[in-house]
Predict the structure.
Amino acid sequence: MSLITYLTRIQFGPGVLSLVPDELRAMGSSIPLMITDKGVMAAGLAGRVTAGLSCTITVYDGTPPNPTESAVLEAVEVYRRAGCDGIIAVGGGSSIDLAKAVALLVSHPQPLEQYSAILGGAERITRDMPPVMAVPTTSGTGSEVGRAALITLNDGRKLGFISPHLIPNVAICDPEMTVGLPPVLTAATGMDAISHCIETFLSPRFNPPAEAIALDGLSRGVRWLAKAFADGGNLEARSEMMMAALQGGMCFQKGLGAVHAMSHPLGGLESPRLHHGTLNAVIMPAVLRYNEAFAEEKYGRLKAALNLPPTADLAEFITHLNSTLGLPGSLSEMGVPADCLPKMVDGAVKDHSSATNPRPMEAADYERLFAEVMN
């Protein structure tokens, strides 16, 4: 038995940002809270979203690189104080995930922890939430169409909150919003999208539509990422990468795997602050090597989608792509201290993504993988 749903509204293509006023009215929001970060504000991207709006806009720009429970509570207070009736999330996955959690807590009782997937909280999330519009400014997370939000709680745990009710009501995917994204962020977010497509395809859950989307997204992402990295003004490459990210998000419901189970607790570290997409890129080759014997047929299909020969080493292909994009080759290169690994292993075992890895995972398996990706 499989539950297969793709329930969201997407406006996609250069220039669709002009549709924000119409879509906001269709959402029924006249006093929206914009959730973004200071970098997006400084780049003028938030101003481009609000330029055509005649309604009152309240802005919360305190989104941290990895969204936190404390930021959620701050934004909830801003929302309530301003009497808002909807949310516009503008930014990368952090701002969009934060917006989902804010929508949850302005309509559901605290604490936030009770709604986490790993603690059985998905059924506590109801449709009684304010409408959310997502306007991505990166091409990676797919959060604009995803049903999940990753939030680091005040106690340091990074937990997933998963429900179809968390999917934004509308996604405004305008690739012009990503033109000029720095090469390092283009690379990191692009590898994030690629990791989503690979992991969801390899998930053992039965969902052929999601697998078809994942294969197309993977092919698209690998074909265009280097071009977007080399020329940030290439609108065709930016459009293709935004679609690859969107497709990665559309197939999330099939589940992820050990790459994300490992990157999620690492993303919860207070120091160093680590980029989720970069973590996925660094971890992915080791996990691909580890899983291959348990998904040989699917590995063949992944290679075919990438126009690789059957004898190709998929892990080495990803390692080479990372190197081409100037991404780090290990966790130690990213500044991860070895003494945090026992806690990371525990976090990976408990992470909701671990259950859908194609190879069953235990603590000893994660110890081996973390040791491999450290150096």
